[in-house]
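note to self: the first set is below, dont mix up w the second
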Amino acid sequence: MLHTNIPPRVALILVLLGLSPAVAVAQQVASTNPYYDFLRARRLEEDDSQKALEALLRAAAADPTSAEIKAEIAGLYSRRDPPNRFETEKYAKEALAIDENNVEANRTLGYLYAGGSPSAEDVKNAILHLERAVAGTVGTDVGMLYYLGQMYLRNREPQKAVQALTRVVAQTPGNPQPRQVLATAYAAAGDFKGAIATLEEVVEYVPSVAASLARYLELDGQLREAAEAYTLALAQAPNDRQLKVLRINALHNAKDFAASGRFAAEARKQHPEDPNFPRLQVRALFAAGDKAGALAVAESAAKTFPKDLQTQFALVDLYSDAGRSGDAEKVLRQMLASNPSDARVLNHLGYLLASRGEQLDEAVTLVRRALEKDPDRPEYLDSLGWAHFKRGELNDALKYLSAAAQKLPDHSEIQDHLGDVHARRGSLQEAIAAWTKALGGNGLGIEKSGVEKKISDAKVKMQNAK
């Protein structure tokens, strides 16, 4: 029972006026106790946030040493529409100046700094305050842990993110979103199997995670399993072209060229306006050894998509591989007529002419024009160096091929070209070094046996010269 000093006569007058002594007591308490306004503000916020704020400001004025009241004001400002960042930060920091471990103030600042697209400094501040809030909270606040896990990821602390998000997933096992973020944290830590296990637990009844699962399976080298997961994802989004491309690529990388080609052909029928799928089908047919089939699809696609340069380049490469250099040149000149300033076309035609040892002046001019568009591109430097080599201009050839090899030391074809230049100049030791690098490189553009023979012949010449 509340005891007051209200005289009986005054109490009677209050009753006659329709005010009970209890109301008067409450008003008297309100004038002396800031926590009346604090509690009243919480009740008022749903209906009138401005009155709630006014009540809290009165409470803060009555008790300026209360961290709880200032933290509540900060929270109210953060929940307004729109939020007031300045006032939120101001009152939360005032609360923490009184009690740096105040849970509500730390929570509010943590959410404030974590929101939107936080800067690196905001991320660090968010982590600081969310860690304090989590430490001071009884039980598990999944919201704070979820935000904290995300901030750890942004701060490149994946192991800490895993720890925080594991607790979130344990409390919300059926929610796919925290599981996907946890899987991301595992992957960021290099633990693809952890990421896979996190999503495999729910993929059957939460198929929306299938695409993410497929990506981690692929990164873990489980290519066929990745293709199966992409198939699950496609069951939910049957018209998703990107998922189809990813499945085709996974099967191709697994060397299942038959399945890769089959899905590419199927997607080609489903999306006849998309040039990606015939190109993927061409790649699969070629890898499977069906060069005639690949060429037929490439020629058809080139007619269907005459302005798509990638499709035209695919046809050029097939013609070159088939020994149909004249057809390759014809397509390239058609491309050049439509795209006279395209550096890729200029370089491709220039390199083709240089490789044949024909029209070498034009080859040099074409590649120089390509380099004007894309200076210091190593592939273009290689083409120019090779054209000079074919013209017998060994100093220029060495200049450009050395620059190309320095920029792409693992490119086998460039190293092979550089070795040929050194050999022509009589620098056999340097030639052997370049050819050896070619054998240890990416394997593109060389025949291993041919390079090995050049090394062997050079060693014999060096031995005979002694």
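second set (the one i keep forgetting abt)
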Amino acid sequence: MITVDGLDGLLATARQPALPELCGLLQQVLASYGSAARLVQEQKLRRSRVRRLQFEVDGQPHSLIAKRFWPSRGLRERAALTRWMPAVGLGAHVPRLLGTAAENTGRLTWHVYEDAGDWTLDRGPFDPDRVREAVELIVQIHVRFAGHRLLGEIRTGGDRGAGFFGACVRDAANALRSLRAPAADLSAENLALLERLLSRLRALELEQSARAAELVEHGGVETFLHGDLWLGNVMVMPPNGSGDRPVVMIDWDHAGVGPVVYDLSTLLVRFKPDRRRWVLDLYRDAARREAGWELPDADRLNRLFETCEYARLANALIWAAIAAADSPSAGAFEELAEIERWFEKLQPVL
């Protein structure tokens, strides 16, 4: 087994769980690079559960990414990287997974990846060429998976179709109602917050049938969705020797099956409003060229995108309400208040 100096202090200040399992995995990975290593630096990336770990192995630098998952999310991520994307010839567009290690209780899993660098679309100035390359890949994913044999496998635990909106609204309402149970000791402010959120959800429940029908008829082809198309999850590298810009998409743990508008809405809202129609036209043109697909007009798309955004906000409410029930605190209710502010700020995408 390789000796790795400094590994005993890894993530110590962050109180991360399952460190012995992670350290064992890192030793296995680093052993493929050499015989002696030392930890040079660790860096938090966006979330506390993601770290960039820089090592020196036999005098050579090596950079790895370690990410912690809930088990179901970890399995979905692993399948996307090692099975689903390679199945349609797109395995080069996902990060290289070097290994996984599960906590012995089964509560969580660590993944270790080869570091692809800091080339996400949310870094640096707006670059039309980089955005064009990213949109071309998104269209390729959607087109190649349309009608694919693996959609049934992917859908298990990841259905983002017409029923997703209604299920999220119902589950969010149930979770919030549990917080106002007679035994709960809530301040007047927190109780009022719950009532406002429940009122929003009741209004959305009344619209469920109409929104679902519109998604089925106009939401676009059902296909494989990344499910979390933030600009920070799309990397577009500098041009290589042949002039191509390699594109890598990360964070596949929300991947699922649903209409193309679900991914499109997530992507478009991450751009400034005056750039969204241009990005949408890139997708329109590529989808028409590759598969003959036609998207609805802007008014229809705005309604479809709104349904997708409401579904995501309701889904966020589910987890925030569960966290508040499991561990009541000011912080837990502040997260619910933040989601209410997201509802209030929701504007037409186009």
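remember for set 2: Residues 298-326 form the longest helix (29 residues).
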